[in-house]
Each structure stands twice: as C-alpha cells, then as structure tokens.
Amino acid sequence: MEIPVYLFTGLLESGKTTLIQEVAGEDDFLDPGVTLLIQCEEGEEAFSEDFLKQYRMILLEVEDPEDLNELFWKRCEKQYHPAQIMIEYNGMWELNAFFDSGMPVDWFVGGIYSTVNAATAELYISNMRKIFMEPLRESSLIIFNRCGDDLDRLKFRRSLKALNPQVQVAFERENGTMYANEIEEMPFDYSGKTVEVEDMDYGLWYLDAMDHPERYMGKEIIFTARYCASKRKTQKYFVPGRHVMTCCEDDIQFLGFVCFFEENVPFEHGDWVKVTVGFDYGECRIYGQDEGPILRLIHIEEGKRPQQELVTFT
Question: Given phi > 0 = left and psi -120 to 50 = alpha, else beta, which region is 179?
C-alpha cells in the first residue's frame, strides 16, 4: 500500500510544530484515516491531546536516529495502518539517516518542508553551516518565520535557489502574515531578441532563467563563461558556466546550463569563452527527471577572463 511520508525539518525552535499544526488544518492535505505523527525532538510547543484527537493522529516519540529502521517501520505499518506519516525530524540528525532507514518500498516522500528562524539564520550559517544547510538542499518548501522588515529576503532567496533550484521559499512576518513575492528587477535589458549578460550579472541571470524562463524563450543570450566539457568527447554538449558564491566563501558552486552544439568546438575544459546561445526550456536527460533551461550554441569565441572570476547574487 502506498503511504505518503511528510518530513518537517529545521533546527530546534524553528517552528516545525507550528507548521505541522497549520498543514494538518489545510483542506485535503490529510487523507482519511490514521495519521502517524513521529516526533524526533521535543521543543517548547507540544502537540495537545485535542489536536491529536481532532486529526486522528497517533504520536510516537523517537530519541535516536538509529531507532528509525526497517523493523520500526514494519511495526508502524502493521500496528497502526496509517493513511500517511508526518515526521518532525531532529534538525541535528543527518537526512541520510532517514533516507537510509529502510522504509517499505511502496512508501514515498510526499514532501520535505523546512522551517528557519530568521532571527538566528545568520548565526547558524556562520557557526553551523553544514547542519543548517543540509536539509535545505532537499526541501520542496522553506519557510523563514519571525522575519523583520530589515531581513535581506532577496539574498536568502537567491542563495537557496542556487542550492536547490526547485524549492519554494516563503517569508513570514513576526505577526504571522506572509510577505508577498517581490518582483525582482534585472540589471540588464531582456525585452529584445538579444540579451547580453555582463560578467558580474551572470548569477542573477542564472536564477532568473530558472524562475522566469518565459523571459528568455526563443531569444539569443550572450555571456562569458568557463567551458565545462562533457566527460566524453563524442557527446555534443558542454556547460558554459561560472563559479558562484551562494552564501559565503565556503559555499562556492559551478553553475551553468547544458548547451548543445553541432559543429566541433575548438576549446578545452576550463577555457574562458564568449558564447551566443539560443534559449529553450524543457525536459533534458542530463537534468534527470527535472525540466530546465536548454541552450543551443549559435557562436563561440575565445573569452576574456573577467577581472573578478567569482560572481555573487547581488
């Protein structure tokens, strides 16, 4: 029997319990039947008996990641016959401990939802970056709560979209209301048939191409990039991209989109090139099961090394 498993992640006091309570109250989220609620850490806010009764939930407490194992899941299935499972995951545990815990093969992850206390986010990034960032890489939704108006929301959103391009990022004020999605203006003109991206604007264009591919469909894009060759020379594609600092100096990634070509390209891996490409968007086996931007090479020439090789999202 297929059973959805919903994972709620975040560090202690980040708002996981509140989010679970809110999600349970949404229409059509929970299927009829028993919901197994597994709590892997206990914060200041507890689940009340009234709440558990209202939504037909059975609460189980798990103290160690090793307790999430094949035998545990089999007992859960046999004893409770849940319609779905919600897990309030311990933010200090590695996600792989959950993914490798031996769940039944017909169970599936219905969503990974992460909460972040905006008041402490910078502190955790500085001191516990790996633990803080790991679950965000896998999340389908990230909610920053307790946000002040001085929080640089665009900075966090850009960094997270680079880390996890498919994620949705939402920001909640201290009073519980949500910020509207900002319409971000690009520092370059994308209204014409040709879009020229300056060296330091590459990071912003990369994110915008992921979020708003309709702005670039059928247009020619011109930019300078490093030539990332495919593993086999017989493959007719490469990735023109740049090294981008996502949130700090220790989080640097090479970001680019696959670019197909027909004629031989006289460049080697790591060369600086200036490309003119046609832009499309759709499914591509190189992206796995995801859709993404697909570039077609129109022209390529030797590129000038930028004065600042590392780009950011500002």
Answer: beta
pLDDT tens digits along 230-282? 988 788 999 999 998 766 556 788 999 999 999 889 999 999 999 999 999 99
DSSP string, the chain: --EEEEEEE-STTSSHHHHHHHHHTSTTTSPSS-EEEEESS--SS---HHHHHHTTEEEEE--SGGGSSHHHHHHHHHHH--SEEEEE--TTS-HHHHHTS---TTEEEEEEEEEEETTTHHHHHHHSHHHHHHHHHH-SEEEEEEE-TTS-HHHHHHHHHHH-TT-EEEEEETTSPBPPPP-PPPSS--SSSEEE--GGGHHHHHHHHHH-GGGTTT-EEEEEEEEEE-SSTTS-EEEEEEEEESSSTT-EEEEE--EE-SS-----TT-EEEEEEEEEEEE-GGGTT-EEEEEEEEEEEE-PPPSS--B---
Locus of tokens 């990230």? 142
Domains of the chain: 3-173 (3.40.50.300), 194-302 (2.40.50.140)
